[in-house]
C-alpha cells in the first residue's frame, strides 16, 4: 500500500488538543484537510507525522513547541500610544487587528491590554508556546 511522502497531496482528518485535553481544532465537523506534504501549509510537526502513513491509518502524535508555532517571543508584545491607531477604531481586549508594517508586510496582532492612552498588542501566534497533540487519520493520498 502507498505511504505518504514529501510532495504528496493528502486528505487528513485530525483533532488537535492542548496538554490539558482542550480541543482547539478538528476537521470532524467540516471534512478532511487537504494539503501537500512538505509544502509549508501546515506546521512542521504535523507534516512530519504524516510521512510513511498509509491511507486508513490512524495515530496520535505529540508535537513540541519547536515543531508547532514556536515559543512565545516577548519582543512581539508592544505597548503603543492610542494616537498611532486610527481614531475611528473601537478597541477591546481580545480583538484582532491587521496592521501594515514599514516593510509593506501585514501583521495580525491581538489587543491584550488597554488604557486611556495606550494599547498593548501581541504579534505572537495565539498557539505559540504550546506543545500540541493531534489525533490523525490519513484518509487518502490524492
Q: Could you characterize what this model shows?
A:
With 142 residues, the protein is mostly beta strands. It has one helix at residues 44-50; strands at residues 9-17, 23-26, 33-36, 58-63, 77-81, 96-100, 106-114, 118-122, 132-141. A hairpin with a 5-residue loop joins β6 (96-100) and β7 (106-114). It is elongated and about 60 Å long. It is built from one helix and nine strands. The chain folds into two domains: 9-70 and 127-141, Chitinase A, domain 3 (Roll); 74-122, Thrombin, subunit H (Beta Barrel). The strands form two sheets. Strands 1, 2, 3, 4 and 9 form a five-stranded antiparallel β-sheet that branches. The mean pLDDT is 95. Helices cover 5% and strands 40% of the residues.
| Total count of strands | 9
CATH fold assignment of the largest domain: Chitinase A, domain 3
Radius of gyration: 19 Å
> Which strand-content bin applies to the residues?
35-45%
Mean pLDDT: 95
- Oligomeric description of these chains: single chain
How many separate domains make up the residues?
Answer: 2
Amino acid at each position: 500500500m502507498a505511504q505518504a511522502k514529501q510532495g504528496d497531496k493528502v486528505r487528513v482528518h485530525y483533532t488537535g488538543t492542548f496538554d490539558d485535553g482542550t480541543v482547539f481544532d478538528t476537521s470532524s465537523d467540516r471534512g478532511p484537510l487537504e494539503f501537500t506534504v512538505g509544502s509549508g501549509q501546515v506546521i512542521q510537526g504535523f507534516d512530519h507525522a504524516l510521512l510513511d502513513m498509509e491511507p486508513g491509518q490512524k495515530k496520535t502524535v505529540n508535537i513540541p513547541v519547536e515543531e508547532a508555532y514556536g515559543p512565545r517571543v516577548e519582543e512581539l508584545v508592544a505597548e503603543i500610544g492610542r494616537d498611532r491607531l486610527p481614531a475611528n477604531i473601537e478597541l477591546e481586549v481580545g480583538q484582532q487587528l491587521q496592521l501594515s508594517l514599514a516593510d509593506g508586510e501585514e501583521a495580525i496582532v491581538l489587543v491584550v491590554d488597554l488604557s486611556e492612552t495606550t494599547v498593548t498588542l501581541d504579534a505572537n501566534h495565539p498557539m505559540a508556546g504550546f506543545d500540541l497533540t493531534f489525533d490523525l487519520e490519513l484518509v487518502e493520498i490524492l
